[in-house]
Amino acid sequence: MYKAEELRTLSVKPKINDIDLNILQDYYRKFLNPFIYQYDIKDDSNPNSIQLRFDKENFCHLLGLESIAKYAVSQKDIHNYKGLDGWHNIQNTSLCFKDLKRMNKSKFKSIKAKFIYFYLIPVLIENPIAVNFKNEYVDPPTKIDCDILFYTKDENAIVHLGIKKDKILKYYIPKTFFVEKIGENGIDIYTNNQKKIEVTKKERIIML
């Protein structure tokens, strides 16, 4: 099993058996959660600056844990797989991949790429390629909900991180993380028809 620090220095994706939920949580805790990322965005119509934070509440959603658990646990227990309750549940109960597989093997398999490519998020947000995202421009249509989509190519896959401004918090949070194999035509349907924007990381601030 890798440690979080080892995951940060990988140059190739890990095997699923070399990571687990507690390792990804530790990785998030050390390399994403403590920081405020500030970006300058150059867009023809609306140049501006944005702030992005990776709160503990966002972790379970990025990994799709609720989607695995929702048909396997009761409605009153689903809160343990999302938000801050989900974060604490992983920390306090040693919830692991084996448990998730037991809950819903086919769903676990379908989103396994999220776990494998999660280590790339700090790399992705360092020097992002980005588009202003409109879900109606995707064919076939998607329910993905974000304002800006960061993406990068890794081997034969495209790794995506969607961010959205939270109306209450007033800063951007990570809303979606997904990996798609590149099709035979080499086109990524999620970025193909979107408007490209220039995003430059201005600084990374450690939160006290």
TrEMBL record:
Pfam family, one: PBECR4
Positions of the Phage-Barnase-EndoU-ColicinE5/D-RelE like nuclease domain: 28-205
Name used for this protein in its record: Phage-Barnase-EndoU-ColicinE5/D-RelE like nuclease 4 domain-containing protein
Lineage summary: Bacteria, Bacillati, Bacillota, Clostridia, Lachnospirales
